[in-house]
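quick one if you have a minute, typing this from the bus. theres a chain ive been looking at and ive put its sequence and its fold in token form underneath. please have a look and point out which stretches look like helix strand or loop to you. anything you notice is useful, everything is just below.

***
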Amino acid sequence: MELKTGAVSDVYGNYSLTLDTGTFTLQYSYVGYKTLEKTIDLNKNIRFSPELAPLLRDLKEVEITSERNDKNVVKPEMSTFRLDIKTIQRIPALFGEVDVIKAIQMLPGVQSVVKAPAGSV
């Protein structure tokens, strides 16, 4: 008989179910453990203490990398500024396209100069 009901245990694993007489399949589950199914024939009060087996999984290798804090001291790069694509994409676009030249002009120390045509004042 399937009742589609359940109970949650406390921190010590204690739980309580009140069921009518009959045959039931109990399913015990917990994250990181194999699910256990137990069929019981309930005709009196019973006590059952299930033991769940750990669910062992092989995990793929995790590689963590970083750059040193003093990388700019070890590797001499003068007048270098790096722009990531996310920064460029945040700049307002003209006609739906991001203007890379405008992104460069917004960097500190970059000035936009308009040269007057020859023969003008």
Remarks:
- The chain has a mean pLDDT of 79.
